[in-house]
Amino acid sequence: MLRSKDLKGKLVRWALKLQEYDYSVHYRPGAQNVVPDALSRAVVGSVDYDKNVCFHPDCKGDPSKTVNWIQCDGCDKWFHLICLGFSLKEANYLDEYFCMNCSPSMTSSKQTVHKVESILPDMNRFISEQVKDPFICDVMSKIHQSSSDMGTLSKKFPLEDGVLKYVGNSSNGISKIVVPAKLIQDVITHYHCSTTYPHMGIRKTVTKVGEKFWWKNMKSDIESFIKKCRVCQFCKPVYQKPSGFMQSTVTTAPWEVLAMDLMGPFPESNDGNLYILVITDHFSKFCLLYPLKRATGKVLASILRQLFCVWGACKTIVSDNGPQMISKAVAEICILWGVKRAFTTPYHPQSN
User: Fold this and answer.
1) In angstroms, rounded to a whole number, what is the distance separating the alpha carbons of residues 222 and 245?
2) What is the pTM of this model?
3) Are 210 and 179 in contact (CB under 8 A)?
4) Which residues, in sequence order, are bridge partners of residue 279?
């Protein structure tokens, strides 16, 4: 990259960034650099179809094309990724894979990442867990009390076939199962990680879960779960604004563009000065330094007036967004002398 003469875009910015450092490049063979070499190799590679046989009963692979494979860690059989519904990124992310015919005996200590085929808890499980949940037990106990306020509560939380449900203030009157705290993760996992609902976003997952279920802080729990989902972090695109084009300042003559900045406060000098105003000609790099006792907009305006009277007015002054630079006094001087002002990007002093 450093020897190329035709760099564009990000390569130019990287080349400029690397020029700030004093370094040397040494080649190290893969045998001596085993860790990066291993990380750079894909777990699942492209294999010709005729070298292996896909054991999936409904194979969708095309024998005439090169396809991606994955091997079962239980029976060592090979399967097409397309038959299992995996993408190549997801397959590279897996630690282990077990086919449907194998019954993996995985302990919690392994923390194996695999394709989640979640099944929602049945109604009996909801009933048994609702009885144990403190919030649901409190609601049920209040419903059984005979008062007008509790009557309103019983309309919001009807009890149907032994299952507490939630209607709320919705006009359609659709009742939703109140999910006990112990089953919240199971419900979210089913609606986010199963092949039926393949890692949908926050809004779609909340809508889908909200059609049948309800619990306190449901939206925030789903949002927190999806933000921590490792598959989404690896595979979902990052919607970030791309880097903009370089806008270099081009000058054609001396005193055309001046760069102005303040330095300090420094230890007080014998004359009582604390600051230094630095003014540099962008074309010739001619530099002027002005010691200052106070760094205010009026002081800067007075110096600019003296500068223009001696050297003449420039076309443009480049400065940061400091309060002295954007002050009314400096703006009036620039308007009076017909000088255009340009400001650098905040928190990017390299522009000036």
Assistant:
1) 38
2) 0.39
3) no
4) 260, 288
Residues 219, 209: Cα–Cα separation, whole Å: 10
**Residue located via tokens 């190290």:** 28
Give strand pairing partners of 178.
214
Report H helices in the chain.
Answer: 10-18, 34-39, 81-84, 88-93, 123-132, 134-143, 148-156, 184-193, 202-210, 218-227, 230-235, 297-311, 328-337
Cα separation, 287 vs 311, in Å, equals 13
Sequence-distant contacts of 265-268: CB under 8 A, at least 24 apart: 265/295
What is d(CA 209, CA 212) in angstroms, rounded to the nearest whole number?
6
DSSP-derived secondary structure for 111-138: ------------HHHHHHHHHH-HHHHH
Q: What φ, ψ does residue 75 adopt, rounded to 5°? A: -115, 0
User: Digits of tens for pLDDT over the chain (352 positions)?
Assistant: 777 778 888 888 888 888 888 888 888 887 888 888 778 776 654 444 344 577 666 676 665 565 677 777 666 777 777 776 666 666 665 656 666 666 443 333 333 334 444 456 777 788 888 888 888 888 888 877 755 555 677 778 887 777 888 887 665 667 888 888 888 888 888 888 876 677 888 888 888 888 888 888 899 999 999 888 888 887 777 676 777 777 777 888 898 999 999 988 888 888 889 999 999 999 899 999 999 998 888 999 999 999 999 888 899 999 888 888 888 898 999 999 999 998 888 877 777 7
Tokens coding 181: 């705290």
Phi, psi (5° rounding) for residue 335? -65, -40
Q: What is the rounded CA–CA span in Å between residue 206 and residue 212?
A: 11
3-state secondary structure of 19: coil
How far is residue 110's CA from residue 100's CA, in Å, rounded to a whole number? 19
